[in-house]
Design a protein that fits this description.
By secondary structure, the protein is of the alpha/beta class. It has one domain: NADP-dependent oxidoreductase domain (TIM Barrel, Alpha-Beta Barrel). The protein has 11 helices and 10 strands. The strands form 2 sheets. It has an 8-stranded parallel barrel with strand order 3-4-5-6-7-8-9-10, surrounded by 5 helices. A two-stranded antiparallel sheet has the order 1-2. α2 packs across α3, α2 runs parallel beside α10 and α8 runs antiparallel to α11. It is globular, with a radius of gyration of 19 Å.
């Protein structure tokens, strides 16, 4: 297993982390992702640790806390071996203050996550989304206090627009507050919007990217092929609800290239798609998901080898996007 610094920090993490959105599945939305119980979760985590994967990603809204509870129980007794990231800010109740990035909500959210995880510290705490109704200074001062108190060790953000991230970094610098060291965002061969605004900013500011949904909501697992019925999995079960639309012909073209390279390398389509991401600038970590042991072992097979420059170029060319304004102005 390869290890990299987590963005702008000295923390070493495995280049793959296990996403636990499949743990629990106690409501309709997350039930489509998976319904992993404690016994299966413990088995998956044992496999990860045996293979050198030391990083586990969850969020309070995953099955309304059930994911955190299962993860915490599964690592009990071996907490020092695991690096745990969780997130807050999305709605956990109908209460008027049950969401957002206010001091009130963040402090409650962190304390509740600590209880569910059965731990007294969170290694990496993310703002799950940007709160337009709370001053950025309030959010960052609260996070700074949580780091000082020892409840949180590093902070990151997820799903921020580039200007929201840059504003946050500037305010942290201005007031000497703890800074976001890592950005968690969507990036895949069929979703390369990240490259246009966020990637240059993250590279310039010395942060790193933690990729979520690297297989494009399950579209790049190999279960979707040209002129074939969709195989069993997340897409067929409805787990792509809320994902951005992808043109069918574009998807088939990308999968055709992935399949050709998979045959050349003796790897699977999913492993090739993940390996392409591992060789992209700014990527610190990729969050992989797994409904079962077989899927986990396949995803773990994406490391310890590299695509050739020709194969990387073929994939990059097949998935290039037209730059948005103003990035095409003055292009040569």
């Amino acid at each position: 297993m390869e290890y990299r610094n987590l963005g702008k920090s000295g923390l070493k993490v495995s280049v793959l982390s296990l996403g636990t959105g499949t743990f629990g599945g106690t409501n309709e939305f997350f039930g489509r992702w998976g319904q992993t119980d404690l016994k299966e979760a413990s088995r998956l985590i044992d496999i990860c640790l045996d293979r050198g994967l030391n990083f586990f990603d969850t969020a309070d809204v995953y099955s309304q806390g059930a994911s955190e509870e299962i993860l915490g129980a599964a690592v009990k007794g071996g907490r020092e071996k695991a690096i745990i990231a969780t997130k807050g800010s999305f709605a956990m109740s109908e209460d008027v203050n049950g969401r957002g990035s206010s001091r009130f909500h963040i402090v409650n959210a962190v304390n509740n996550s600590l209880k569910r995880l059965g731990t007294d510290y969170i290694d990496v705490y993310f703002m799950h989304g940007f709160d337009n109704y709370t001053p950025v200074e309030e959010t960052l001062r609260t996070l700074d206090n949580l780091v000082t108190s020892g409840k949180v060790r590093y902070i990151g953000c997820s799903n921020f627009a580039a200007w929201q991230l840059m504003k946050s970094l500037s305010i942290s610098e201005k007031y000497n507050l703890e800074q976001y060291v890592i950005y968690q965002g969507y990036y895949s061969l069929i979703g390369r919007d990240y490259e246009q605004e966020l990637m240059p900013l993250i590279e310039d500011q010395g942060l790193g990217l933690m990729v979520w949904s690297p297989l494009g909501w399950g579209r790049l697992t190999g279960k979707i092929r040209r002129n074939q019925p969709i195989g069993e999995g997340r897409i067929k079960s409805g787990g792509a609800v809320g994902s951005p639309p992808v043109d069918d012909e574009f998807l088939y073209t990308v999968v055709d290239v992935l399949e050709r390279i998979a045959n050349e390398t003796g790897k699977t389509i999913a492993q090739v798609a993940l390996n392409w991401l591992l060789q992209r600038d700014t990527v610190s970590n990729i969050v992989i998901g797994a409904r079962n042991e077989q899927q986990l072992l396949e995803n773990l097979g994406a490391v310890d080898w590299s695509l050739t420059s020709e194969q990387l170029t073929a994939l990059t060319t097949a998935t290039d996007q037209t730059p948005i304004y103003p990035h095409w102005v003055g292009e040569r």
